[in-house]
Amino acid sequence: MESTLISLLHGFSVAFQPDNLWYAFLGCLVGTLVGVLPGIGPLSGISILLPVTFGLNATQAVIMLAGIYYGSQYGGSTTSILMRIPGEASSVMTCIDGNAMAKKGRAGAALCIAAVGSWVAGTFGVIMLTLVAPPLATIALKFGPPEYTALLVLGLIFLAYMSTTSLVRTLLMACIGLLLGMIGIDNMTGHFRYSFDLAELGDGIGIVPVAVGLFGLGEILSTPSHTVVGEVITPKFRELLPNRQEWRESMMPIARGSVLGFIIGIIPGSAHIISSFLSYALEKRVSKHPEEFGKGAVAGVAGPESANNSASTGAFVPMLALGIPTGPITAVLIGALMVHGVNAGPQLVTEHPDVFWGFVASMYVGNLMLLALNLPLVGLFVTVLRIPYAYLYPLIIMFCIVGVYEVSHSIVDVYIMLIMGVLGYALRKFAFDPAPLVLGLVIAPLLEQSLRQSLIMSNGNYLIFFSRPISLGLLIVCVILLGLSGLAFVLKRKDWRDKLAEAEAGEVQQ
Amino acid sequence: MNLRADHVAGAAFVGFGVLVIALSGDLPTGQLSMPGSGFLPKIVATLTIVFGLALVARAGESGPFSDVPWNDGMHAAMVTVITAAAIMLYTYLGFIFTMVLMMVALLVVIERRNPLRAGVYSAAIVLLTYVCFAWLLKTPLPESPFSY
Q: Which domain holds residue A319?
């Protein structure tokens, strides 16, 4: 504990360096804008801006990119409350009661509760991250190839289990991602795989063109400008403070949302989206007045907004401690660290303490910055929301092209982005979620290497995965999750995932 | 039999899996004690085929293929064509010319905006971005034959 505090103090000395403070601020500001603008999610925002960080060191880069991620969770609430359009997916639940509060003249109070809840939850998440990640990294140092193989398989199955689309659809997307991740030179034998004599494909397909194409361009292709309409409610600055009763009603939902969000954040899947839905359901269940939900209940804003922020911080635990991405956003962040020659994982704490602790400490500072940014600048965000989408998306396409090209100055990467954009458009038409594809792409090299190393270690004996306690335990969890999914399918029972899918589709009953 | 959306999607994935296996012909599978470079790709391609078939088998739960909404198809096709043209020109004409042309094309051809306003907006945004990247972020962008 003492060593954690000393390390954290060292982290603050890194985070408080003027350059690092500036990049944390920049990340938070851009993240808030990414969250505010409908159609640009944190994943596309981080992917597009990834090349901008190439001139920075690893600490500055990860501080800025993570700022975009958790900043977008703050910003998403603004659009949800003022326009009833989720700025990003995790703000779906905030639309319901947040906009209802705004229509009752309490837009300012809703924004303030969302911002304070986000800050409390974000800070709680960082405290937990500080306490949990280093010991977890110590345990992970004992992991060998069989344990990593089992862990990665568990990650994929967890993602499929938590997904709002069906298990088969999610696993199909993960398979496509794994296959894309195997393009290029095989590290163990030197064979060229599926590169069609293109030298650019020798290094494999990068995560940036795939993520930007699927989530940035794909979203634009399926969103004609005439479909993006919405009225913006402008809150008055003096109405920003909630009254005493609203504060009272928001306290416990913020506390519950923070704890629930962090726990869900650690689990693979789109945690920040799932956590806000579960928090909403929990608040409705424990409320003495469930009939108020949908009509402007304070708890319906405070709970989900806290949960999605805490979850976004929780997602950093497996990323930093194990080097395992729990979702596409952490996958891109791991990719960003790799670009800077830093491998996320158990060795990060010991080999790059500046990066690890500087990053953790910067999140304490970033959350404070976001609280200070979100309320006074609400007028600016309202102005941004008034920019017609028709003028906005050409700008986003330009950033997609520039962002992807700048990664390795390869025009082939930009063509890959375009192909992925069209693929993303087609996948949406057939109700596929492209997120597992990105995850599959990122973990493919690690999964292949650990699987092959395990088999070589055991002289081709598959029992190696069942003879080691940690990998056996992880595989048992895989079987349980597959069994639960099978049971839900056989009983044809609607569970929380179906309800979340309906909520995301805008079918929540008012 | 009514053609369902998942019939088409599942068949596409089965086809993709078969294609990957066909393309993996020259990759050695190896043995369990020494897996080759084709080992995992063939396993994953087989899983893709299996899951694709599962999707086809359960296609009755999906909507009819004819109900898949393609009303935004024209918008998507036009954006794709203009973006592809911009990518082709990017390294020849450089950042400034290509991006101004692309943004004007998107705004005038697809969005039917006033050409003059679209031109001024595009030029201003592109120049601002160029300044940010080239001068502030010190990140070189492709230059035109006229060296800017």
A: 2-504
